[in-house]
Specification:
Blueprint lengths: L1 H8 L3 E5 L4 H12 L5 E4 L6 H11 L7 E4 L2 E4 L1 H9 L3 H7 L10
Length: 106
């Protein structure tokens, strides 16, 4: 889990994904649509991807991707991110983490 913690500490928003996962792509597009520039780690394309996937599963992310961290906190997968969005809580979370600076909502 140390590797996940080190990677998450580098940016205010981090997404672990797989290149073939459509939900990972959707969550990435959603977060980027607010002006955030998350670190994206496609675990099927990096050398230690299997180790990272095991750590994500230990954190409780099922399926293992997408796994979203905002402000160094594990948010969850696609369902949790979409729930935050529907409840209008995703943008304030991104602002608090300094992943985005301002949002006009238009």
């Amino acid at each position: 889990m140390d590797i996940v913690q080190r990677l998450v500490a580098e940016k205010p928003a981090v997404i672990f994904s797989k290149s073939s996962c459509c939900m990972s792509h959707s969550i990435r597009s959603l977060i980027c649509s607010f002006g955030a520039n998350p670190a994206i780690y496609e675990i099927d394309r990096i050398p230690n991807g299997q180790q990272i996937e095991r750590a994500l599963l230990q954190l409780g992310c099922r399926p293992s991707v997408p796994a979203v961290f905002i402000g160094q906190e594990f948010i969850g997968g696609a369902d949790e991110v979409m729930t935050l969005q529907v409840k209008s809580k995703l943008v304030p979370l991104l602002i608090r983490a300094k992943a985005i600076w301002l949002w006009n909502g238009n």
